[in-house]
Design brief:
It is a single chain. This protein is mainly β. Helices cover 0% and strands 71% of the residues. The chain has a 16-stranded parallel beta sheet that branches.
């Protein structure tokens, strides 16, 4: 059967978990005004949401078997939403990891099997938006953004099989867009400093 563990400490948290099959969900929320929404259908899916401080929001939808999702968000804002993560995985054995610590937004969409997505955003201070699209099988994407400024943006979209893409950005005002269509494409983007822009189409 399904297993759900919800731990909440603080004020005004909202956690919703819906599971059908044989899945496991863990939600840990502390601070205030945290929102977690987890929906899992299939067998062997694992979801972990850990949110602290205030006004973080996480939504995880997994439809298939043996998918794994991890969301860790630590930040606080007095109005609006601090860190926001949306993860959708359909298929089998997809793995998603999202870690955000400051003014971040992340969107991960994986359809197929054996895809792996890693998004790490920290200490952005009014910046950092990361998108990852992987539709197909055995694709790997990594996005890391650091800095203490605004306008961090990274977009990654891979369609096909066995594609690999990495975006590394530090400081602030960086923009990177990678689109890979087909099979066996490899892309590596590393930007340091400020005001950098990179666009890759393969």
């Amino acid at each position: 059967g399904d297993d759900s563990d919800i731990q909440q400490n603080g004020l005004n948290h909202d956690a919703k978990v819906a599971q059908a099959g044989d899945n496991t969900s863990t939600v840990n929320q502390s601070g205030f005004n945290q929102v977690a929404d987890v929906d899992q259908t299939g067998d062997g899916n694992l979801s972990s949401v850990d949110q602290s401080l205030g006004r973080n929001k996480a939504k995880v939808v997994q439809d298939g078997d043996d998918n794994t999702s991890s969301v860790v968000q630590t930040f606080v804002t007095l109005t609006g939403v601090a860190a926001n993560a949306d993860v959708y995985q359909e298929g089998e054995r997809n793995a998603s990891s999202v870690k955000q610590y400051s003014n971040s937004d992340a969107f991960v969409d994986q359809i197929g099997a054996d895809n792996e997505s890693t998004i790490t955003q920290n200490l952005a201070l009014n910046g950092s938006i990361a998108n990852a699209w992987q539709e197909g099988n055995s694709n790997t994407s990594t996005i890391t953004q650091n800095g203490l400024g605004g306008d961090h943006e990274a977009s990654l979209k891979q369609t096909g099989d066995f594609n690999e893409s990495t975006i590394l950005q530090s400081n602030y005002n960086n923009t990177a867009t990678v689109t890979q269509t087909g099979n066996l494409n490899v892309s590596f983007v590393n930007q340091t400093g400020a005001g950098n822009t990179t666009t890759v189409h393969q």
